[in-house]
What does this fold into?
Amino acid sequence: PTTVVTFGTFDVFHVGHLRVIQRAASLGDRLIVGVSSDALNAKKKGRAPVFSQGERMEIVASLKPVSSVFLEESLEQKREYLLTHQADVLVMGDDWAGRFDDLGDICEIVYLPRTPAISTTALIEKIADL
Ligand code: C2G
It folds into this structure.
């Protein structure tokens, strides 16, 4: 069986998140998702997520195409995570294109195009303006 692994924050879950998860799942037999920790987000984006890591993991784990979730605590641990979960395919959004090509020795790397015109930041701004 082919194991696909993908990563993300999945904060204020929206249809762009859903579509990348559906497309990632279609590339294999099971999909495992690394959900970024609150601490990793603070470092990466300089703000706390709207939903806590526990809430974000609960939402992603409940999706039909998702077999299991784990906490992603560091961007530098990708190789370790992929080996632990015996990944055959790593899927990332194309905003990360080329960034993880060095992991091509352990699995196939696929960058998928993002859904246009939707983002957590845009949603936060839209809600703030209501
Ligand atoms: N995504 C998408 N279309 C959008 C928004 C997001 O396809 N309009 C995808 C991203 O490309 C990514 C996933 O949804 O594959 C999760 O996006 P984020 O939560 O923004 O993930 P990010 O914070 O980039 O975390 O190890 C890397 C990080 O964990 C990735």
